[in-house]
TrEMBL record:
Keyword Mitochondrion on entry: no
TM stretches of this protein: none
Keyword list, A-Z: ATP-binding, Nucleotide-binding, Transport
Database matches in SUPFAM superfamilies: P-loop containing nucleoside triphosphate hydrolases
Listed name of the protein: ABC transporter ATP-binding protein
């Protein structure tokens, strides 16, 4: 615990480390401190200090094996941390279960779409929502999810009949329907054509700008990153290597060496 003077200049109040890092007096929504994950003798993330501001759209890039997906899985609770802390919106969430983190406002869409092909678009959209809402609230959220996915008019189409890009859009809409403050996307445009990538970029930026959802997006497509990102973080060997706007990242010779073709 720490002692800080309150904003009015009154008596000192005690704040936790999570409140100091991500509480009401900061613009920081997510903060990891010395976050580490080990798999046997392999260190996937090594004392990572990573932060995301409220409403920010940040992309996470780096070569294969850099620790990008591991970092997101630590934030969601899919993996338990081997060391360090995860602070979110004034709370220490390091030891919370994934469903508890969802309730606090963290949602994630994984790389491979997990929609159910034999269910309709509406039925898929209802799945993540039915645990949290019913009645008119559930119907509103389902409608919002379909709209966010750009699939109005496809409500009664089986998900198996959608293109790969539309399935990706549906799952983004499903994740957004949980009304998170932070949405994590793992390679949302992998395997998509130009038009589908543009559609995903439009969905992400609209949700960020209109709904105020903060994003962390893992992506290898630097053109897509340049279209959406406020800031870019480069991971390498489980550590943060560089951070900054995409223009500075792309022109950095060391980043070019490890990520853009110089080192494999």
């Amino acid at each position: 615990m720490s002692t800080n003077q309150d904003a009015s200049g009154g008596p000192n109040v005690r704040q936790t480390a999570a409140e100091l890092a991500t509480g009401d007096r900061t613009d920081t929504l997510l903060q990891t401190e010395d976050l580490r994950k080990e798999f046997g003798g392999f260190t996937a993330t090594d004392e990572v200090d990573f932060s995301v501001a409220e409403g920010e759209l940040r992309c996470l890039i780096g070569p294969n094996g850099a620790g990008k997906s591991t970092l997101l899985n630590l934030v969601t609770g899919t993996y338990d941390a081997s060391g360090g802390s995860i602070y979110y919106d004034g709370h220490d969430v390091t030891d919370l279960d994934p469903h508890q983190r969802v309730r606090k406002g963290i949602s994630m869409k994984f790389q491979v779409p997990s929609v159910y092909g034999d269910l309709t678009v509406r039925e898929n959209a209802r799945l993540p929502i039915q645990r949290f809402a019913d009645g008119d609230e559930r119907r509103r959220r389902v409608d919002d999810a379909i709209e966010a996915a750009g699939l109005a008019g496809y409500e009664h189409v089986d998900a198996s009949q959608l293109s790969h890009g539309q399935q990706q859009q549906l799952e983004i809409g499903m994740a957004a329907a949980l009304e998170p403050d932070l949405l994590l996307l793992d390679e949302p445009v992998a395997g998509l054509d130009v038009a589908e990538r543009e559609a995903i970029a439009e969905r992400v930026t609209r949700l960020n700008e209109a709904e105020g959802i903060a994003f962390v997006v893992i992506e290898h497509d630097t053109e897509f990153v340049a279209n959406i990102a406020d800031e870019v973080t480069v991971l390498h060997n489980g550590e943060i290597f560089r951070e900054g706007p995409i223009e500075a990242i792309e022109s950095d010779p060391e980043v070019q060496r490890i990520y853009l073709g110089g080192e494999h």
